[in-house]
Amino acid sequence: MHAYRTHTCGALRAADAGHPARLSGWVHSKRDHGGLLFIDLRDHYGLTQCVFAAGTEAFALADKLRLESVITVTGRVVERLGNTVNLKLPTGEIELAAEHLAIQSAADVLPMQVAGDEKYPDEIRLKYRFIDLRRDKVHRNIMLRAGVISSIRQRMIAAGFTEFQTPILTASSPEGARDFLVPARLHPGKFYALPQAPQQFKQLAMVAGFDRYFQIAPCFRDEASRADRSPGEFYQLDFEMSFVTQEDVFNTIEPVIAGVFEEFAEGRGVTRPPFVRIPYDQALLEFGSDKPDLRNPLRVTDVTAHFAGSGFGLFAKIAASGGIVRAIPAPGTAANPRSFFDKMNDFAKAEGAAGLGYITFDADGAKGPIARNLEPNRAEAIRLACGLAPGDSVFFAAGKKDTAWKLAGTVRTRLGHDLGLIAQGEFRFCWVVDFPMFEMNEESGQIDFSHNPFSMPQGGMAALTDMDPLDIKAFQYDIVCNGIELSSGAIRNHRADIMIRAFEIAGYTAADVEARFGGMLNAFRYGAPPHGGSAPGIDRIVMLLADEPNIREVILFPLNQQGEDLMMGAPAEVPSPRLKELSLRLDLPPKVVG
Q1: Each residue of 29-67: b (16+ CB within 10 Å) or e?
Q2: CA–CA separation, 129 vs 425, rounded Å?
Q3: Chain centroid, CA 22 distance in Å
Q4: Residue 297 gets which letter from DSSP?
Q5: Is 98 exposed, middle or buried (0-12, 13-18, 19+ CB in 10 A)?
Q6: Is 558 in contact with 552 (CB distance < 8 Å)?
Q7: Which of 56, 262, 330, 356 is deepest in the core (most CB within 10 A)?
Q8: 367 CB burial (10 A radius; 0-12, 13-18, 19+)
């Protein structure tokens, strides 16, 4: 018999009754029934009930055990009868009648319980993450993650992609966040950067002639935490393809993403390819977001023209000054109490807006403060434009364009939740396409890249030469699921002359581009294929499938919100001799006293 186990704790069944068996695992729970002691023994695979008879040496040892001690139990499999059968467990038809017990590792008093659903502070869970991971839900999340990654890898290989590994120590690159820097001991005063993404390397792989690349890539960004983003590091399905158009990329990756979600959806609905394509400008108008949640049926309508020159002076003035008025429908709310509308107004103020106007409609027409000052024909035109009926209401977000559309999107989301309109148990995908190539930096008044600087502008060199930069669209796209961005991607700029011109518009000289991206530019000068790709986030995919609101729940050993590893004590101070070896001297900010 094996020293530790003949079976796992999830393997034994009624057919094994009468046979000897040996199990090893953690003491999940204990129940003393007088002459019998029951221990639920747990390992990675499941639970098995072990029974210890009073008066035996094994009973005496088991009686003293703390929960989560690791033990080996040897005995005979016994079939459970009548109401002792536990149909909730795969092993619930049997139990192991213990004859011998060996203690492999006795547990101290636990800082948190493994059995049950008790909630614990994040500080405790992260400091003792190795215990937290024993809990059923967290354990299942991590196994789900492993299954998702395995499925993705198989599907990508089946689609003709080859897996490569790109460097971890590299040069700094403008990917939109701060780099993590690594001092180079052999080159004093110089630093490597951990890659924010394998962007340049995967493009260079295409230039090198590898037609379809992918990897489950670790990425490092020194940025703040939020519910759908882990601080420090994350993983993505990074892929790139040669000689492809935007539609080729979509048609290739859609079956992979949809297939993975269908495999792990457990009966929830999944959008089948092709996913809907929504232009960026349309997304901002109809959804108030470039991450539209298609489960929400509400659509925003621009009603600026209906208020221009109207009797409602506030909105007429906004329209005349170049602002916008967006309408967000609230079906079936016209008869709601005044408190409902006041609550929405308070919500808008909490979001930084001056307030939130509204109109209600009944059989007699438009009602409310705005309606009293708005011509009836204009109110009716708004009702028709928004597809409203008697009994419905409509809210208005008005102001400068760059703020009013965001407020409209926030109100749309709030109404969708409050009115119970969000479809449950579904994964709805879409592509957001036609992002602007450039945007105006409000602080500096200069033109910046709005998305990925390595993207191909629609229209190529002619667009960069002849068009207003703020009117140029790029072959850039995001894949969105249930209002969460899974990835950004693009058809890449594969020509050195177009790349130099694009950066020139954003304020970089040719010398700047040569200095910062000389490796890529040099490669482009020796024959580069048209290519494109994307990088769906692994963590976010698993978070959606696990129906978890926070990304930390699907990461094996996550950092806390301050980017600290409470379990391993990182980041940590480094001894002075080590700093000297790296030619570094600390210049710390003064400590705040009091």
Answers
A1: beeeeeeebebbbbbeebbbbbbbeeeeebbebbeebeb
A2: 30
A3: 42
A4: -
A5: buried
A6: yes
A7: 330
A8: middle
Tokens found for residue 24: 């090893």
What's the CA gap between 76 and 469, in Å, rounded? 78
The pLDDT profile of the chain, 594 residues, written as one tens digit per residue, is 999 999 999 999 999 999 999 999 999 999 998 889 999 999 999 999 999 999 999 999 999 999 999 999 999 999 999 999 999 999 999 999 999 999 999 999 999 999 999 999 999 999 999 999 999 999 999 999 999 999 999 999 999 999 999 999 998 875 567 899 999 999 999 999 999 999 999 999 999 999 999 999 999 999 887 777 788 899 999 999 999 999 999 999 999 999 999 999 999 999 999 999 999 999 999 999 999 999 999 999 999 999 999 999 999 999 999 999 999 999 999 999 999 999 999 999 999 999 999 999 999 999 999 999 999 999 999 999 999 999 999 999 999 998 999 999 999 999 999 999 999 999 999 999 999 999 998 788 899 998 888 999 999 999 999 999 999 999 999 999 999 999 999 999 999 999 999 999 999 999 999 988 888 899 999 999 999 999 999 999 999 999 999 999 999 999 999 999 999 999 999 999 999 999 999 999 988 765
The tokens describing 560, both together, are 């806390």
**Inter-residue long-range contacts of 545-550, CB under 8 Å, 24+ positions, other chains counted:** 545/144, 545/148, 545/261, 545/264, 545/265, 546/140, 546/141, 546/144, 548/141, 549/227, 550/227
Is the pTM higher than 0.90? The answer reads: yes
Residue environment code for 323-351, b if the CB has 16+ CB neighbours within 10 A, otherwise e? bbbbbbbbbebbeeeeebbeebbebbeee
Structure tokens at 37: 């002691």
Partners of 219 in the beta sheet? Answer: 234
How far apart are the C-alpha atoms of 230 and 241, rounded to whole Å? 28
Residues 410, 351 contacting (CB under 8 angstroms)? yes
Task: Report the C-alpha gap between 524 and 551 in whole angstroms.
Answer: 38
CB atoms inside a 10 Å sphere around CB 565: 17
- For tokens 């539209």, the residue is 292
Which phi and psi (to 5°) does residue 132 adopt? -55, -35
Give the closest residue to 336 by CA, choosing from 391, 373, 378, 287.
391
- d(C-alpha 482, C-alpha 168), whole Å: 32
Q: For the chain, count helices (H), then strands (E).
A: 18, 24
